[in-house]
Amino acid sequence: MIKRTAEKVLGIIGVVLNALGAILTGIFIGVAGDEISQELYNDPTITTEDADIMSSFFGGLGWYFVVVSAISAILGIVGIVLLRRNSKSTAAGVVFIVTAVLSAILTLFGSFVTSILYLVAGIMAIVRKPINQHNTQDSNTIDSY
């Protein structure tokens, strides 16, 4: 049985950063979203229709990042749970790698740090194998030539 402490720590850090990013982005949208919209409407160089379009675009983009970060955090938790069983380490590695690639692409590399953490955890989960402690040769046999 091999300890998967490094993979678990990288996964936990990735989950925490994704969850924190989702929460902070949601709070920012809720608190500053109305103020930004008001600033757009008060700008004399921007028409009301353009202000509506830009306000909905930035609000939708913010919620998109919240959803992608939350899904990445959930998939990270799934990878960590799969690591608890040593026989599922390959599946956990695949989950981590898929999460890393999708979150990087879907957030336009906005979650670069968490993607790297998930990628490293996934590669480690797949590559690291337990050392076979049983000797294949019997120590009592002598080879004769």
From TrEMBL:
Organism the protein comes from: Terribacillus aidingensis
Entry's transmembrane regions: 9-32, 61-82, 94-127
Keywords of this entry: Membrane, Transmembrane, Transmembrane helix
Name under which the protein is recorded: DUF4064 domain-containing protein
Record lineage: Bacteria, Bacillati, Bacillota, Bacilli, Bacillales
Domain DUF4064: 3-105
Entry keyword annotation includes Phosphoprotein: no
The UniProt record lists the keyword Transmembrane: yes
InterPro entries in the record: DUF4064 (IPR025273)
